[in-house]
């Protein structure tokens, strides 16, 4: 029936509408493994760094008819929520991973039957495979690449190949008791053994957000109901416990599983969210890159004066620094390169400045693409838009994973110098400190007060050498100290 | 609020809806009778010519009935038209009848204004006006983006409740005065039909009066529908009637039913600080809406708010709070009929739709059998008796006939009936009647939803196209910092006929009329796209929508006259 529709949706305005991915996107969104007439819907790889995804919600329910192109499920990757659509007509026979749970990329999350009659067959298949492999298997074995699906574009050998068993890894082991419910959204967190937990809608929402198990919480609401402030208190207590537990004396307590239903807040272990998992993986991966650091002190009086002048036009300091960096990179393209395989230079054609932003529960790097070519005003607008989207978790993959050079600025906290860890896949990252009034001796022998800031670049020495960075920093300093080029 | 209700008894375990239950009541009715009315199109044109002649006759005989139609000796009546029920439908009919020169009386058993004015749309708009402002003031991010600084916003519950109550009495007085000044007789008491063209009315304990009328309109409306097993105490387990008085703002309220009423109340309650749990019998929330609009609305109206929900379950038993115990709700799986869960909440609002109020009307005196309480009517609102024959001189409009349970639909039906009894044949096109849900932002719609249009297209063998525009591209919406929203047009690319328009976004309820008027007048997309809209206004969202529609170049066949359903 979908051929009847000639959609004329305006694509430029749709990010928050979560426009479903179309076939033309270059991200491999799904792979379907044909098994008789029952297809498995796999957890798609929505970004190159994604290894597992969380089901935010099932748009279709079991037994519902699907048409090619229909959005079926909303998946939370390490960076954003995205709709996943079906490539085939058919019926959603069985949902294998419920809402709120996670599955590794490539693991089957649902079965698609070609006709209504085959729904039963699909259900039989799911029950047989789950009885064959009752324990969740977190490491799916890659199956022979038999999928004749031409639309499958691969970005890694094991990433999206099919698996034959219904293996599902759960994000929070504590949820396993409720995972058997068919309707993920309507499962009340009532525990077994007759003991029920009554929690208000907002309390449940918060608990889900923080990955907190409501069982064992003592509610302060009417009739012992768990309300939002109980969850907030528990989370705060857990965080406090974590901080104070850096000492060895408390360490044992922290790793102790929360048993007995008492004082969960103090001894709890809060698992990483998908985003925190991604950060963790990237940080460990960065250890395999030989990096070095070069610092530089730059006088910012002229930049500050310019900022004051054009601030009213919506220009932000972040955009100005990104622009200055991009202009310097134009003259030193080597600093914009990276080493992907340990054997070659990857010279990037675009200068895309990624800027690290702290958001709730993590860190994301929205990218100002072609920062050298776009004027400072547009760049500032673009930046605001990206930050808003990042807060709403609506960044599209190309908006956070296409950076070629990264900026990290802690100056607003008064930090005067720090060094940054190089994000894998890029050549260099610059840590920017606060601009502070500093006493300096000038060339003509006088002493003066100037605003100065320290920058510190971390780079991959396989492709970027000391002299490259030094020259780049000198150029950057010249641009910042005489910033008229920024507004061109 | 109630009058903007359509989702009838959706969470009702005994619901006798056919298999396509996901369509809400109004849509379903609209579809079901559509094909019939098409057949009637030609017929109606014929009738129109004939009836113009009889119109002349009627003017001559004035108050006495036209002998030509009555197949009996001329008889003298107390009134030309008696309307039973003084709600918005009855009021609309009365005003139009006076304009047409009819001697008119209206029988009201309760208060003038009916559900809409006293217990529905009107007071709920007062509450929603408050909730909209609360939302704005509480949204610090939004305020900051506009450069505004506001200290913590709070509210006085009683003052909010008074605002709603004052608005209702003001509108009620306006309605009463407008009828009085035009010379409509307002008769107090419950009306009962004694026989053809004869109505009895009176209050309990008072002698009854009997009047005769050439034509009678039943406009008795509806009352909140409460499924079996639910005990309403008016304090902790309530219907919209009680909720509109806003006697309490509970910490946690369960709302049974996620149609218009439920959604609007969730908007009010969450803005005033309550947490809400929806209980919906169908598998999806907001079953009556276009699925795409519903999905987007859910992301804006439900997901970020303090709301959770249980779908695919019936609230089979609800016990009010007493003796220190909370309200207890037993949930049963809609498919397996097995107990699923128990909720303990502070209050429960039953918003499962509305049931017709047709008891005591004396329908048995004229051999009319109601269907699930609704008075059966044809497409001209003429009442049908138990054998499917027309009952002469008797009409039924509004919620009591169940065609489209909206205040303005009732009024339009009333006007249509008056047109007919004054000699001009008229069939109301229900597909051109807009509906709106006054959440923040609002939702509005007219015509078919996408699945309905697809079904129709498949059956009748034409193609449909979809055009969409976003509020994000609209200057005025961005100036207000309210870019969240979508407008969607469903049309025929071969003829340019508009099949449906759905809007979710700021002031959607006010924006829909351009589309509903176009459907009512049969305006095609290729014509309306040349209409000019002031810049910058929200109406440009629709302007852009029409302009983005692609009509096949060689359209020669004009769209037929608007088809009534």
UniProtKB/TrEMBL annotation, chain A:
<comment type="similarity">
    <text>Belongs to the 2-oxoacid dehydrogenase family.</text>
</comment>
<keyword id="KW-0450">Lipoyl</keyword>
<dbReference type="InterPro" id="IPR001078">
    <property type="entry name" value="2-oxoacid_DH_actylTfrase"/>
</dbReference>
<feature type="domain" description="Lipoyl-binding">
    <location>
        <begin position="38"/>
        <end position="113"/>
    </location>
</feature>
<dbReference type="InterPro" id="IPR003016">
    <property type="entry name" value="2-oxoA_DH_lipoyl-BS"/>
</dbReference>
<dbReference type="InterPro" id="IPR045257">
    <property type="entry name" value="E2/Pdx1"/>
</dbReference>
<feature type="compositionally biased region" description="Pro residues">
    <location>
        <begin position="135"/>
        <end position="145"/>
    </location>
</feature>
<dbReference type="Pfam" id="PF00364">
    <property type="entry name" value="Biotin_lipoyl"/>
</dbReference>
<feature type="region of interest" description="Disordered">
    <location>
        <begin position="130"/>
        <end position="166"/>
    </location>
</feature>
<keyword id="KW-0808">Transferase</keyword>
<dbReference type="InterPro" id="IPR004167">
    <property type="entry name" value="PSBD"/>
</dbReference>
<dbReference type="Pfam" id="PF00198">
    <property type="entry name" value="2-oxoacid_dh"/>
</dbReference>
<keyword id="KW-0012">Acyltransferase</keyword>
<keyword id="KW-0809">Transit peptide</keyword>
<dbReference type="InterPro" id="IPR000089">
    <property type="entry name" value="Biotin_lipoyl"/>
</dbReference>
<dbReference type="InterPro" id="IPR011053">
    <property type="entry name" value="Single_hybrid_motif"/>
</dbReference>
<keyword id="KW-0670">Pyruvate</keyword>
<protein>
    <recommendedName>
        <fullName>Dihydrolipoamide acetyltransferase component of pyruvate dehydrogenase complex</fullName>
        <ecNumber>2.3.1.-</ecNumber>
    </recommendedName>
</protein>
<dbReference type="GO" id="GO:0016746">
    <property type="term" value="F:acyltransferase activity"/>
</dbReference>
<dbReference type="InterPro" id="IPR036625">
    <property type="entry name" value="E3-bd_dom_sf"/>
</dbReference>
<feature type="domain" description="Peripheral subunit-binding (PSBD)">
    <location>
        <begin position="198"/>
        <end position="235"/>
    </location>
</feature>
<dbReference type="InterPro" id="IPR023213">
    <property type="entry name" value="CAT-like_dom_sf"/>
</dbReference>
From TrEMBL, chain B:
<feature type="domain" description="Pyridine nucleotide-disulphide oxidoreductase dimerisation">
    <location>
        <begin position="433"/>
        <end position="544"/>
    </location>
</feature>
<protein>
    <recommendedName>
        <fullName>dihydrolipoyl dehydrogenase</fullName>
        <ecNumber>1.8.1.4</ecNumber>
    </recommendedName>
</protein>
<dbReference type="InterPro" id="IPR050151">
    <property type="entry name" value="Class-I_Pyr_Nuc-Dis_Oxidored"/>
</dbReference>
<feature type="binding site">
    <location>
        <position position="353"/>
    </location>
    <ligand>
        <name>NAD(+)</name>
    </ligand>
</feature>
<feature type="binding site">
    <location>
        <begin position="405"/>
        <end position="408"/>
    </location>
    <ligand>
        <name>FAD</name>
    </ligand>
</feature>
<keyword id="KW-0150">Chloroplast</keyword>
<feature type="disulfide bond" description="Redox-active">
    <location>
        <begin position="116"/>
        <end position="121"/>
    </location>
</feature>
<keyword id="KW-0560">Oxidoreductase</keyword>
<feature type="binding site">
    <location>
        <position position="191"/>
    </location>
    <ligand>
        <name>FAD</name>
    </ligand>
</feature>
<dbReference type="InterPro" id="IPR016156">
    <property type="entry name" value="FAD/NAD-linked_Rdtase_dimer_sf"/>
</dbReference>
<keyword id="KW-0520">NAD</keyword>
<keyword id="KW-0809">Transit peptide</keyword>
<keyword id="KW-0285">Flavoprotein</keyword>
<keyword id="KW-0676">Redox-active center</keyword>
<dbReference type="GO" id="GO:0009570">
    <property type="term" value="C:chloroplast stroma"/>
</dbReference>
<dbReference type="Pfam" id="PF07992">
    <property type="entry name" value="Pyr_redox_2"/>
</dbReference>
<feature type="binding site">
    <location>
        <position position="399"/>
    </location>
    <ligand>
        <name>FAD</name>
    </ligand>
</feature>
<dbReference type="InterPro" id="IPR004099">
    <property type="entry name" value="Pyr_nucl-diS_OxRdtase_dimer"/>
</dbReference>
<dbReference type="GO" id="GO:0004148">
    <property type="term" value="F:dihydrolipoyl dehydrogenase (NADH) activity"/>
</dbReference>
<keyword id="KW-0274">FAD</keyword>
<feature type="binding site">
    <location>
        <position position="280"/>
    </location>
    <ligand>
        <name>NAD(+)</name>
    </ligand>
</feature>
<feature type="binding site">
    <location>
        <begin position="220"/>
        <end position="222"/>
    </location>
    <ligand>
        <name>FAD</name>
    </ligand>
</feature>
